[in-house]
Amino acid sequence: MDVTSCSVPVSTRAPGGTTNSYLLGTDPAVLVDPAAGADALDRLVRERDVAHVFVTHTHPDHVGAVADYAVETGASVWARTGRTDRFREATGCDPDRTFSPGSTVELGTDRVRILDAPGHAPDHVAFEAGRNGPIVCGDCAVREGSVVVGAPEGDMRAYVTTLRRLRALDPPRLLPGHGPVIETPRATLERLLAHRSDRERRVLEAVDDGATSLEEILERAYEKDLTGVRDLARATVRAHLEKLDVEGQLAWTGERAHSD
Ligand SMILES: [Zn+2]
Fold first, then answer.
1. Of the N and C termini of the chain, which has fewer Cβ atoms inside 10 Å?
2. Taking 90 as the threshold, does the pLDDT of residue 213 lie above it?
3. Percent of the chain with pLDDT over 70
4. pTM for the complete prediction?
């Protein structure tokens, strides 16, 4: 299946100030994550018969031009089953159809499979382009650095499961929402899993050493200067604490943590 990427500049908070939109197939084609209108994306859309518009999740830096391209192409706009209210709020667009993880959408003689991929956002899905093809993974993975998984929007337990699921699928490439294509998915997913387990160990150690408040745990779990990203780090630590609490490794009340 033909897969084309188009980096578009977005005005909302996004890593690097750009988001990758994708076109899967040509005639018919799926437009994924139309984050903003852009000349290059306009051209790609005009060259194809766009029959469907999908989003990986409904964060503002992924959905800014859903309504515009829906009107321009006349394509069917899809939302995740059970998340249509959230979709409508984020896009200003009424979904025509809904999909559930595990289902497929036929695209000529080929197909796109919808994969469950929660963690970064509760409604997050990924798209497998063709049988055993590359996976459009939205904000599940990036080639450099890591993605935000912060409570209450993010769910660390779900995120780790999603990373493992993607690793098991072992796609030839991962096509992320931000930054360059991931040519070595297995190595990148291993790196992201190691990053999470390392942070989790630090959070657990901080609590074992007597830290109880979010701020105390934050201070001990991060070595780097958090200027400018303190809110994201705080939400991340909260997500780790929620995961560890569910798994019975410590107790977290939402205010205070203590060892079990
Ligand atoms: Zn996002």
1. C
2. yes
3. 100
4. 0.95
Q: How far is the CA of 59 from the centre of ligand 1 (A)?
A: 5
Q: What is the CATH number of domain 192-259?
A: 1.10.10
| Sheet with 110-116: strands ordered across | 104-107, 110-116, 125-129, 135-138, 174-176
- Distance from Cα 120 to the centre of ligand 1, integer Å: 6
Alpha carbon of 232 to ligand 1 centroid (Å)? 13
Beta bridge partners of 256: 213
**Residue 182 tokens, joined:** 């991931």
Q: State the distance from the centre of ligand 1 to the C-alpha of 258, rounded, in angstroms.
A: 31
Tens digits of per-residue pLDDT, 42-68? 999 999 999 999 999 999 999 999 999
- Cβ burial, residue 194 (10 Å; 0-12/13-18/19+): exposed
Task: Give the Å distance between the CA of 259 and the centre of ligand 1.
Answer: 32
Domain ranges of the chain: 3-183, 192-259
Distance 139 CA to ligand 1 centre (A): 5
Residues 3-183: name the CATH superfamily.
Answer: Ribonuclease Z/Hydroxyacylglutathione hydrolase-like (3.60.15.10)
Distance 45 CA to ligand 1 centre (A): 23
* Residue among 185, 181, 196 nearest 147 (CA): 196
Q: Residue 15 Cα, ligand 1 centroid: separation in angstroms?
A: 10
